């Protein structure tokens, strides 16, 4: 029985600011709750373990949980050992350590089996690290327990930004004060009969903590909340942190909304804000939000392609997708489409979902098995080039080991673009899957043992070999080939080898070993001229994490861009995240300047396009032009405006954890991170000035929020932490091919980045009284200069004026 209840603030320094100051317990807890709290509970103990927990029916769940927390302290044993116990935390593994004057009970909280909602981002870079401990000490004197001290700690931190962190510390203390006579023993054969004799209102209820929801007073409806934030989600505001913050808060609202409420808002919104609303509804990832968006979108129509694509991209970036989402996309794929581009995007995103579900031990789910058959069977039977490309892109996302034999076939025997896509797909596989058989095929492609291949295919094959534990002979043969390759490919391979050495990549030891021999390391081989390049550098580096960028550019012998490949990786304790990849490819443009194509590229159609990979998800490539007539019409009519590759709001970090503390209190730990992103690219080509220019522009706004709360239903305490930033970079490559060697300028600009961090601590009574403490820190991260090449040439400076200090440029 709990008597003489009092509520105090743990932090005695609050003084006059204490939310309990001047209030009686009945005013804090509320009269009906206080009466329930003081009503006795009965425990049926057998050898120190709680067999049954008896309480009145229909008491407030939050109050019953406080009693459960107290009752759980009475569960103990005097001997050392490990066992399983059921208490307020669930069915948990506990270890007892018996000493002369005390017994220590350590509860493994991660082993507790209990029904609690929650999810997390699977990627270790974007995920969180949480740690929980529970230790209870029983002090013993003369075989009596005279005191119990329990301490439970839950800590959380975001892996890549460790300032987003928080901790919950929960303590219980039970001390023996006096001993006096209690009620007389009641004899009986059945426990149930004894309980009924004590009070017929008692009933056996679980000792495991039960879920309760605190009443939200004055909270806006979904429609009201949307109206208050929609102005921040106008297209012109998407580069601001406020847009992302509004996006994150709206997702929380959507997760408690019904399908009808969501549909009502979707149908009433205008076309400017609708794409952002689709991003939010899809990112909510609830059954109601999925049903609403699928009812709203008509894939048979070509009038809402932008909305369909935004839905699909949000599915691809889903933080914790389920089988139902995958099944929904499979069903859509088997239906009819108003746009072939959307059909292609559906299959590509199916591949991304397969990968995520397999990472979460869902590879054997029926939906995943069905999707695998769809991808692999489709690739095996596909005859049209467009279908082969679609299934290869899906496999590039799914990375199914069983797809490797098909990839090897297309890589070695497929025509140019198909062969290149198959090799870049193999490049995405983890090292254990790049077997000797795969490397033998890559060696045959690079050295052209069976057929002539395009430069883009050969260089990708060489990259796969060098990035996956190359043998001495593999490195030796690649080095010996330099000098026998087409001009620009010579220079590219030389730059790649130098980059491996300079950046100390894993293959650098083997390369150095081979270079000790004069036949491989000589002036003739290492003095090859050209403009193609490969370079890797650090954006930021710390003992805990690092960000790297790499840029490789391959030109044709006539000076026209063949491939530009920009990659940004984030590493946290060696766990990688492929944040961004932007590839611009061009081919078959030599006839425009009456130049001779390189070997194996004599019959290529004119083509230029852009392919993007974002946060480990391959997106549908974008075509600038395809075919000579398309090229000429766009050269005569097109402006230099960039083409959007991906634009929208993405839920990047999504962690939610509901905790039952041993004390009986409920706790929640939530972390969300979102970004607004706009990646665009363009390719300009001037016959008059004999100049080509490619641009890749990336604008982002990022917001991360963490919310840790402890709730007793009548009082709530919390910590809100957040960080936000806005920024972007632009990469420009300019080539003048009026002479050879042609002049090239590479520029990479990164603007100054504002960084803001917030912390709010609060305590609030259910009656409305509260305490709030806020902190804010702002800083400006200056724009950085990134080297883009290892060489400089004064000759280029005469043609292209040097760039301002805010940009980085490499001239060669």
TrEMBL record:
Keywords: Disulfide bond, Endoplasmic reticulum, Golgi apparatus, Lipid transport, Signal, Transport. Catalyzes the transport of triglyceride, cholesteryl ester, and phospholipid between phospholipid surfaces. Required for the assembly and secretion of plasma lipoproteins that contain apolipoprotein B. May be involved in regulating cholesteryl ester biosynthesis in cells that produce lipoproteins. GO terms for cellular component: basolateral plasma membrane; endoplasmic reticulum; Golgi apparatus. Heterodimer; heterodimerizes with the protein disulfide isomerase (P4HB/PDI). Interacts with APOB. Interacts with PRAP1. Its main location: endoplasmic reticulum. Gene3D superfamilies: Lipovitellin, beta-sheet shell regions, chain A, Vitellinogen, superhelical. SMART domains: LPD_N (SM00638). GO terms for biological process: cholesterol homeostasis; lipoprotein metabolic process. GO terms for molecular function: cholesterol transfer activity; lipid binding; phosphatidylethanolamine transfer activity; triglyceride transfer activity. It catalyses: a 1,2-diacyl-sn-glycero-3-phosphoethanolamine(in) = a 1,2-diacyl-sn-glycero-3-phosphoethanolamine(out); a cholesterol ester(in) = a cholesterol ester(out); a triacyl-sn-glycerol(in) = a triacyl-sn-glycerol(out); a 1,2-diacyl-sn-glycero-3-phosphocholine(in) = a 1,2-diacyl-sn-glycero-3-phosphocholine(out). InterPro entries: Lipid_transp_b-sht_shell (IPR015819), Lipovitellin_superhlx_dom (IPR011030), MTP_lip-bd (IPR045811), MTTP (IPR039988), Vitellinogen_b-sht_N (IPR015816), Vitellogenin_N (IPR001747). It holds the Pfam family Vitellogenin_N. PROSITE patterns: VITELLOGENIN. It is found in: Endoplasmic reticulum; Golgi apparatus. The gene is LOC118895527. This is Microsomal triglyceride transfer protein large subunit. Residues 1-580 form the Vitellogenin domain.
């Amino acid at each position: 029985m709990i008597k003489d209840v009092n509520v105090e603030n743990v932090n005695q320094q609050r003084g006059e600011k204490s939310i309990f100051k001047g209030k009686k317990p009945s005013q804090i807890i509320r009269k009906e709750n206080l009466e329930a709290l003081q009503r006795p509970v009965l425990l049926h103990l057998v050898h120190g373990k709680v067999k049954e927990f008896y309480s009145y029916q229909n008491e407030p769940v939050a109050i019953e949980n406080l009693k459960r927390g107290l009752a759980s302290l009475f569960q103990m044993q005097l001997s050392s050992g490990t066992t399983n116990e059921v208490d307020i935390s669930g069915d948990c593994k506990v270890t007892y350590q018996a000493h002369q004057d005390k017994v220590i009970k350590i509860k493994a909280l991660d082993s507790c089996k209990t029904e609690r909602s929650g999810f997390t981002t699977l990627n270790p870079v974007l995920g969180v690290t949480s740690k929980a401990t529970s230790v209870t000490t029983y002090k013993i004197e003369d075989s009596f327990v005279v005191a119990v001290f329990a301490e439970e700690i839950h800590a959380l931190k975001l892996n890549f930004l460790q300032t987003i962190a928080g901790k919950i510390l929960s303590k219980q203390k039970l001390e023996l004060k006096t001993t006096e006579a209690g009620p007389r023993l009641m004899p009986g054969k059945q426990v149930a009969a004894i309980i009924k004799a004590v009070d017929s209102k008692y009933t056996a209820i679980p000792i495991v903590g039960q879920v309760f929801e605190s009443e939200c007073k004055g909270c806006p409806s979904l429609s009201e909340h949307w109206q208050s934030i929609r102005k921040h989600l106008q297209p012109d505001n998407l580069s601001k942190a406020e847009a992302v913050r509004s996006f994150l808060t709206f997702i929380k609202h959507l997760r408690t909304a019904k399908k009808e409420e969501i549909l009502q808002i979707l149908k009433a919104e205008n076309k400017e804000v609708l794409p952002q609303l689709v991003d939010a509804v899809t990112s909510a990832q609830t059954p109601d939000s999925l049903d609403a968006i699928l009812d709203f979108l008509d894939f048979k129509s070509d009038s809402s392609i932008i909305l369909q694509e935004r839905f699909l991209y949000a599915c691809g970036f889903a933080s914790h997708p389920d089988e139902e989402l995958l099944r929904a996309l499979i069903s859509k794929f088997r239906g009819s489409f108003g746009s072939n581009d959307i059909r292609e995007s559906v299959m590509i995103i199916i591949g991304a979902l397969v990968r995520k579900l397999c990472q979460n031990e869902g590879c054997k789910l029926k939906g995943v098995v069905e999707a695998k058959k769809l991808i692999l069977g489709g690739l095996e039977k596909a005859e049209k080039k467009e279908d082969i490309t679609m299934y290869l892109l899906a496999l590039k996302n799914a990375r199914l080991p069983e797809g490797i034999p098909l990839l090897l076939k297309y890589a070695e025997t497929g025509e140019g673009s198909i062969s290149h896509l198959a090799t870049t797909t193999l490049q995405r596989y983890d090292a254990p899957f790049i077997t000797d058989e795969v490397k033998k095929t890559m060696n045959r492609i690079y050295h052209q043992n069976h057929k002539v291949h395009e430069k883009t295919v050969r260089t990708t094959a060489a990259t796969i070999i060098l990035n996956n534990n190359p043998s001495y002979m593999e490195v030796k043969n690649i080095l010996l080939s330099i000098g026998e390759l087409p001009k620009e490919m010579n220079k590219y391979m030389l730059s790649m080898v130098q980059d491996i050495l300079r950046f100390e990549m894993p293959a650098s030891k083997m390369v150095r070993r081979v270079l000790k021999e004069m036949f491989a390391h000589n002036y003739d081989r290492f003095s090859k001229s050209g403009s193609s390049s490969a370079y890797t550098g650090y954006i930021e580096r710390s003992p805990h994490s690092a960000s790297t960028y790499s840029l490789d550019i391959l030109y044709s012998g006539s000076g026209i861009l063949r491939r530009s490949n920009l990659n940004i990786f984030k590493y946290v304790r060696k766990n990688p995240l492929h944040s961004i990849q932007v590839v611009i490819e061009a081919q078959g443009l030599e006839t425009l300047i009456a130049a001779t194509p390189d070997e194996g590229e004599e019959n290529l159609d004119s083509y230029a396009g852009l392919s993007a990979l974002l946060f480990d998800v391959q997106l549908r490539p974008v075509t600038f032009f395809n075919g000579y007539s398309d090229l000429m019409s766009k050269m005569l009519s097109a402006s230099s405006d960039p083409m959007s590759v991906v634009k929208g709001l993405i839920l990047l970090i999504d962690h939610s954890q509901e905790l039952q503390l041993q004390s009986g209190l409920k706790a929640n730990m939530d972390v969300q991170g979102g970004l607004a992103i706009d990646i665009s690219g363009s390719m300009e080509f001037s016959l008059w000035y004999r100049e080509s220019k490619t641009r890749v522009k990336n604008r982002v706004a990022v917001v991360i929020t963490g919310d840790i709360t402890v709730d007793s239903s009548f009082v709530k305490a919390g910590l809100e932490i957040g960080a936000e930033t806005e920024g972007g970079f632009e990469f420009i490559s300019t080539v003048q091919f009026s002479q050879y060697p042609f002049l090239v300028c590479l520029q990479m600009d990164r603007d100054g980045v504002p960084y803001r961090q917030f912390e709010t601590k609060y305590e609030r009574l259910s009656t409305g009284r509260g305490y709030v403490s806020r902190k804010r820190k702002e800083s400006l991260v200056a724009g950085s200069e990134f080297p883009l090449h290892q060489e400089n040439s004064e000759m280029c400076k005469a043609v292209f004026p040097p760039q301002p200090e805010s940009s980085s440029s490499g001239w060669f």
